Amino acid sequence: MGKQINYFLRYPGGKRRLLVFLQDHLPSSESIKGRYIEPFVGSGAVFFYVGPQKALLSDANPELIDIYRGIRYSPKSVWKAYEKFGSTKKDYKQVRDHKREENVIGRAARMLFLNRTCFKGMWRHNREGKFNVGYGGQSRRWVITEEDLLAVSKRLRKAKIECGDFETIIEDASKDDFLFLDPPYKPHEQEYTNSHYGWQQFRFEDHQRLAKALKQAKRRGVKWAMTTSTHPKILGLFRGFYAVKIPKGTGSLPGIMTKNSGEVLISSYKTEGSTKL
Ligand SMILES: C[S@@+](CC[C@H](N)C(=O)[O-])C[C@H]1O[C@@H](n2cnc3c(N)ncnc32)[C@H](O)[C@@H]1O
After folding, report:
1. Domain coordinates of the chain in residue numbers?
2. CA torsion, ordered 34, 1, 42, 54, to nearest 10 deg
3. How far does the centroid of ligand 1 lie from the alpha carbon of residue 118, in Å?
């Protein structure tokens, strides 16, 4: 595992609180011979935790990818721009509602600011594709520092960063690569549909596409592990693979478990406690 990073993004569905569980089921960075690939990277909780030497990170959310690209090459400039935003609700609304087509540094700073000051770190858009989350306050804004962005940038330089659908990313994986996947899902459910914006939806057909791509990857010798819902129709897509139920772990209270979290880790390899589906 790499040196711990201060998580710089707030992200709904982020796997930070499940790291306590995941650490026993994922390969260490040293044992990954090829690349660590994450096609639904979100806030990158698992990527930063594993700390791989070589990675491919991707997500369908273009504004999120702007943050990564901006910080990867120019952490200091992003920080400078981030610092300059005002600190009132009016300032927040001004930044949120008057999106300017700036360069990647400006876009990264703007989205980082909105992420750190919006309500509960939500990521929601209206039908015109405009970010429309309400104001959440300044209390989480200065929890991150310039040093954090520098540390994140250092890690990101070991990664290629893409924006788009998961399928092409999975197709790119070859023997020796390791894939970690965390698609949008609702525990116990078969679909994730409660939003207006394309990349936040995940329909059963997407799970089917995902299963097909992962079966092909396995045939090429790629190892993979994925968190997903325990809905029987989803589990049914992965017959013959391994699964272990995810207990509800919390970062500060490891070992506290509920029997029915509605989430499962499915993998192409046997991990501790897993059984064949
Ligand atoms: C559950 S979140 C991942 C959270 C991440 N593991 C973390 O710890 O922060 C799922 C991610 O999938 C992305 N996504 C949704 N549909 C996608 C698609 N078709 N291809 C690639 N990414 C997609 C969303 O933008 C979101 O960032």
Report:
1. 16-60+164-276, 66-153
2. -30
3. 19
Nearest-5° Cα angle at 265, 256 to 32: 110
Q: Are 124 and 106 in contact (CB under 8 A)?
A: no
Beta carbon of 237 within 6 Å of any ligand 1 atom: no
Q: Whose CA is nearest to atom 13 of ligand 1?
A: 40
Choose one of 199, 204, 263, 265 to mutate for the ligand 1 pocket test, by most ligand atoms within 8 angstroms of C-beta: 199
Residue 43 beta carbon below 6 angstroms from any ligand 1 atom = yes
For the stretch 130-170, pLDDT in tens is 888 999 999 999 999 999 999 999 999 999 999 999 999 99
Ligand 1 site, residue 47, Cβ cutoff 6 A: no
Helix axes 104-117, 89-97, angle to 10 degrees: 140
CATH top class, domain 16-60+164-276: alpha beta
Give the pLDDT band of residue 253 (cuts 50, 70, 90): very low
Q: With 0.90 as the threshold, say if the pTM is over it.
A: yes
pLDDT in tens, 24-59: 999 999 999 999 999 999 999 999 999 999 999 999
Pick the CATH number of 66-153 from 1.10.10.10, 1.10.1020.10, 3.40.50.280, 3.40.50.1970: 1.10.1020.10
pLDDT band, residue 251 (cuts 50/70/90)? very low
39 lines ligand 1 (CB under 6 A): yes
- pLDDT of 218 > 70? The answer is yes
Ligand 1 within 6 A of 13 CB?
Answer: yes
The residue whose CA has the least distance to atom 25 of ligand 1 is 61
